[in-house]
Amino acid sequence: MTTRNVWRPLALVAGLALLATACGGTTRDDVAQQSSASAAAPASSAAADPNAPIKPGLKIAFLPKQVNNPYFTIANGGGIEAAKEFGGEGKEVGPSEASASSQVSYINTLIQQKQDAIVISANDPNAVVPALRQAKDAGIKVVSYDSDTAPEGRDLFVNQASAEDLGRTEVQLLAEQIGHKGKIAILSATPNATNQNTWIEFMKDELTKPEYKDMELVKVAYGNDEDQKSFTETQGLLRAYPDLAGIISPTTVGIAAAARYLSDSSFKGKVKLTGLGTPNQLRKFVKDGTIDGFELWSPGDLGYLASYAAAALASGQISGAEGEKFKAGKLGEYTIGAKGEILLGKPTVFTKDNIDDFDF
């Protein structure tokens, strides 16, 4: 994880000012199941040259689920910083709402602008594919990050962490906090968010194990990655289930909104809350006892890695084939895995004992 010496300016602006972030990551497994196409991302027919230099002046566009979103501000800030390192130009464009087709018009514009690469966190794995295929036909490299597209829509997917690790550890964290017994709920993002749905499936599978026999998942609610709706959904969960023991919110928007509601209610300290969030966003809730622990990867590192992956593709260092390697600046060397996936690494658990060691 990135500690307090990295991404400080972005985190202070983004994490504290808006609290509207969306941890929308998608797993390849889920997208592969939803896509009727081949599970493997198509690699370029051109032979890769691992010794090729990164081309100067590469234009790389970051297309998040929504702009003015602290999580993506940090992630894309990392990507733009990487672009500066290798002599390229990075920019962020995108919709203000995270609807399924809201990114299509931006992809079309980026094609007209002749970008060298598009780095996208997809609101919907399939809605963006036709436009992305047009981008690829125009010679633009496509890297998905955080939230994957269907495989035929991109060259690579930079995954923040193993979907299974995230889904199962969320349950494990909450189970420890509630003594492995009681009713629990999940506060997700949008119903079609592929990352959320995949993590939730692993959560449900984890809950089938004998050690969770006294825990019951009573509802999956959706806050649509909107702060106020997530706040209202939390309120609704507790009205419907006043004996709720805990909530898992695998979205930084949801966990922040839920924490805000719990911190000013009679449920504070009684209903446990965990999920995915940033340290700067949730620090005060950890310190006041609203949250015992939560987890996340480094958003800045995720964008940084995606930027270098896009540059390596656009420069011909890699084609997207399994086993190819490339260097990602300060993060070191990465290897492309099966189906065009690059894994950033394992998430970190944040508690009152370590949260002040991190600043993003």
TrEMBL record:
Any one GO MF annotation of this record: carbohydrate binding
Predominant place of localization: other
GO biological process: rhamnose transmembrane transport
Keyword Membrane belongs to the record: no
Domain of life where this protein originates: Bacteria
Annotated compartments: Cell envelope
Keywords associated with the record: Signal
Periplasmic binding protein domain location: 60-317
The keyword Signal belongs to this UniProt entry's keyword annotation: yes
Signal peptide: 1-22
UniProt name for this protein: Rhamnose ABC transporter substrate-binding protein
